[in-house]
Amino acid sequence: MKEFLLKQGVSENLLDEVEKFTKFYDLDKNYEYRIPHLKYKYYGKETWEKAIAAILSGSHILLSGPKATGKNVLAENLAFLFKRPLWTISLNISSDPASLIGSDTFKNNEVVLKKGPVYEAGLAGGFAVFDEINMAKNEALSVVHSALDYRRVLDVSGYDRLNLHEATRFIATMNYGYIGTRDLNEALVSRFLVIDMPTITDSDLKKLILENTNLREDYVDLFVRLFLDLQEKSLNSEISSKAIDLRGMLAAIDLMEHGLSIKSSLELGIADKTFDSYEKEIVEDIIDTLFKSGIKSGDLFVG
Length: 303
Ligand SMILES: Nc1ncnc2c1ncn2[C@@H]1O[C@H](COP(=O)(O)OP(=O)(O)OP(=O)(O)O)[C@@H](O)[C@H]1O
Ligand SMILES: [Mg+2]
Hints:
This protein is an alpha/beta fold. 44% of the residues lie in helices and 13% in strands. The strands form three sheets. Strands 2-5-8-1-9 form a five-stranded parallel beta sheet, with helices on both faces. The protein is globular and about 70 Å long. The chain binds adenosine-5'-triphosphate (ATP) and magnesium ion.
């Protein structure tokens, strides 16, 4: 991982500090299984440096940005880099304090606390992800305000308060522009440092595709082009953002490797995500211009 980050130009100084952090905060063997295994590595030097510095300084971070900008991938990468166990808490309108902190349960005829993910992360010095934090009601989160600020304590009614383990960090993600999302309450936002997640650069996108697929290098550029063209159309308000879906594009490449035709694969992963026929036509035009009808999915891959 260190080599990967140095290659991206991430400051060596920061990485040395990370190493000190991981040496200083031992991890209980019982939690090792919670250090994530990475499927994707996160690309983006500035964002890496912001996130690493924020975590080293003891802060919690809020990753805000459009869909598929790698918010969850970055959160996992951070837990991996800092060697901390990770809890991911999916928030929604019905999330309540008990689902975060815990609830009473019977054990040997006694009422005990069944620990929730925030409690466990606070105990273990883990990283806890509040995923899609803006989907949750404010009341659900106000119970963790004192854990998120300088007090770093979790009040659990009826039980002893928990002082968070020093290595505990909270990483919130939010997706702006979705229906159903609300503006975050100021008191909550002020407890985080905010990282505005950029969309991936074309050279990083190329590296990402090369590393995660078996595409031949000369074809990788076609997919980078496709992504950029779609992005440009959306920036010019010619199409919505529905079709600009990196997750969908990687999935489509996977389908092609399984032998599905290029056209069908891109329909499944990209074009059919817009349900507006006018928009779909524009997207299909872009696809047809880039992928001339002669190419077969089998030709795209090495070996
Ligand atoms: N900068 C990046 N580095 C690595 N992968 C990226 C990057 N940007 C996007 N991706 C890719 O985009 C896909 C989606 O990533 P992820 O699920 O983390 O996005 P997200 O921002 O959490 O999306 P959503 O808002 O829809 O939840 C993954 O395949 C991931 O590899
Ligand atoms: Mg996400």
